[in-house]
Amino acid sequence: MSDGALDLKTRTAERIEAQFAQVSGDALMGDLAQAALAITESRSEERCGGYRTVAIQRDSSPAAVPPPDAAAVRAAIGPLLNDPRRLPPAPQIYIRLVKLTENPDVSLGQVADVIMSDTASVAKLLRLVNSPAYGLRGRVPTVAAAVRILGLEALKSVVLASSTDGIFGGPIQGDTRMVEQLWYHSIASAVVAKVIAREVGWRDSEQFLVAGLLHDFGQLVVLRGCPEAFHMVDAVANRQGRFLDAESKIYGTSHASIGGLLAERWGLPPVLLSAINGHHHPDPSKPYPETVAVTNLADVISRALGIGYDGGFVMEPIPASVRSLLGLDGNRIRAIAHAVDEEYPEMEALAVGW
Ligand SMILES: [Fe+2]
Ligand SMILES: [Fe+2]
Fold it and tell me: Does one domain contain both 81 and 130?
């Protein structure tokens, strides 16, 4: 094994230990930490190099970072939040599909025609539905088959998921590497959400996959629209603790709420709006508790496995309501983590080329 791969393993193990230090008394999180460490230990050199293990380092020299000018950041991010028109538009193909399916008499042929009119979307859609995470591997050769097999609601989710690389990709101001890391975290969360739904025995799983993929849309909006705000919050969080606390201190809201604004602007289904808004504070009394719970856990597990980066290093314990809703125990948590480690690389290889 090369020094580089060893170094990456050591750093990953150190990161996991530091991340879990604050939740060390929590049995379930202890199981998750053990699973993450075991996976790190067993990764081959090739896997270490190709796997998008988090490359961001915790800031260990606080004095080197100047104190944040929160007023300047608030002034910079304010226009983005106060005028939803400044948020990025939804992918055209998704807008056309939603408009078309508002007509109850629309035929499946008309839906297939709209998708096929956009050749880039055809390729991405077929890659996603035939991906291992989607679970229909190789069984959907054409758009017509996708429309027939998936049905309209699932199809809209898949078209949305397969066109989100437009907002992750494209010209980026600021830190390209951070956007890339967020994309890997989002892909990982999509895979984890799908695996959790499968473990729990829930069939209607594309909504979980899409919720995992989109849960940190708000981070992306900030990274693209006002990257200095993200970096300031990240620097403060890495010195003082929780990313969410740093967000509310510096710009007075959270990436979950910002993602919710984007979801509203795009007219996303209420279940996705709930998952995006609620992924850090799942509340079983609010709508769609199952999807919000899965999204919360998917976020925690993908962070624990260190795939990509979504800001901050502090692990949040898994809420009691999520544990009971999903019937979690240590064995199940370890099984989910190991299944994700198996399934993620292939999904990443597909998603990078979407
Ligand atoms: Fe988040
Ligand atoms: Fe996240």
Answer: no
The pTM of this model reads 0.87
Q: Tell which of 131, 163, 195 closes a domain.
A: 163
Q: Hey, what's the torsion of the CAs at 37, 219, 283, 23, to 10 degrees?
A: 30
Tell me the two tokens of residue 200: 């729990």
Ligand 1 centroid–CA 22 distance in Å is 18
Highest-pLDDT range among 3-7, 189-193, 247-251: 189-193
What's the CA gap between 326 and 294, in Å, rounded? 8
What confidence category does residue 57 fall into, taking pLDDT thresholds of 50, 70 and 90? low
Could you read off the pLDDT of 120-164 as tens digits, one per residue?
A: 778 878 887 887 767 777 778 888 888 888 888 888 888 887 777
pLDDT attached to residue 168: 62
Ligand 2 centre distance from Cα of residue 253 (Å): 16
Judged on CB neighbours under 10 Å (0-12, 13-18, 19+), 59 is middle
Amino acid identity, position 46: E
In a domain, 168, yes or no: no
Q: Which ligand places an atom closest to the C-alpha of 255?
A: 1
CB 207 within 8 A of CB 153: no
Residue whose tokens read 């003082």: 240
List the one residue out of 155, 131, 133 whose CA is nearest residue 144. Answer: 155
Nearest ligand, CA 218: 1
Question: Which ligand is the nearest neighbour of the Cα of 304?
Answer: 2
d(CA 352, CA 354): 6
Q: How many residues does the chain have?
A: 354
Give the pLDDT band of residue 65 (cuts 50, 70, 90).
low
Count of structural domains within the chain = 2
